[in-house]
């Protein structure tokens, strides 16, 4: 068996074998899905400020009732047939990506409170030995964001890098900046 070495990265061939698993519309297979349908769009930008045209963005989220489709989520909130909460898209020539989904509900935190509605995001691209992981929060959830236990761990000056802003009703804009002054906060998981 061959094992990855430190010199092997996640790209540029990460799309081979994964294209069939792309899912830009998380709502397509869930006609009974209630909740606010939203669009999340943005770009992945490298340390030079250039777009990343050969990356991949994955998201995973709870449904509008605040439940993940995962065996470890044993909450009472209902699951929705056809909604997995998982999406994956390659970045376009301008580093752009776009998902259609629903706004997630709040999920419990470890202290018994609720986390603000958020989406977990992973980015894969050339030059990375391991994917980077972050979260996307919503700018119109300011009260929930102010009490979120994870967002509260991020220095206040950097929190804006995790917040998607509404550009139109139901449409949010959020960029992933890999390095530099406006670098997105990434989590060590």
Key descriptive features of the protein:
mainly beta, 9-stranded mixed beta sheet, 1 helix, 9 strands, Intradiol_dOase_core
Describe the structure.
With 189 residues, the chain is mainly beta. It has one domain: Protocatechuate 3,4-Dioxygenase, subunit A (Sandwich). The chain has 1 helix and 9 strands. Strands 1, 2, 3, 4, 5, 6, 7, 8 and 9 form a 9-stranded mixed β-sheet that branches. Helix 1 links the parallel strand 6 and strand 7. The longest helix has 6 residues. The model has no long low-confidence stretch (mean pLDDT 91).
Short description:
With 189 residues, the chain is mainly beta. The protein is 3% helix and 28% strand. Strands 1, 2, 3, 4, 5, 6, 7, 8 and 9 form a nine-stranded mixed β-sheet that branches.
End-to-end C-alpha gap: 26 Å
Query: How many distinct domains?
Result: 1
pLDDT under 50 segments (min length 5)? none
Largest sheet: 9 strands, mixed
pLDDT averaged residue by residue = 91
Give me the number of helical elements.
1
Enter the CATH topology name: Protocatechuate 3,4-Dioxygenase, subunit A
Per the principal axes of the C-alpha atoms, what is the gross shape?
globular
The share of residues in extended strands comes to 25-35%
Q: How large, in whole angstroms, is the Cα Rg? A: 17 Å
Percent in helix: under 10%
Total strand segments:
9
- CATH architecture title: Sandwich
| Helix and strand composition category | mainly beta
CATH class label: Mainly Beta
Please provide the ordered H/E string of secondary-structure elements: EEEEEEHEEE
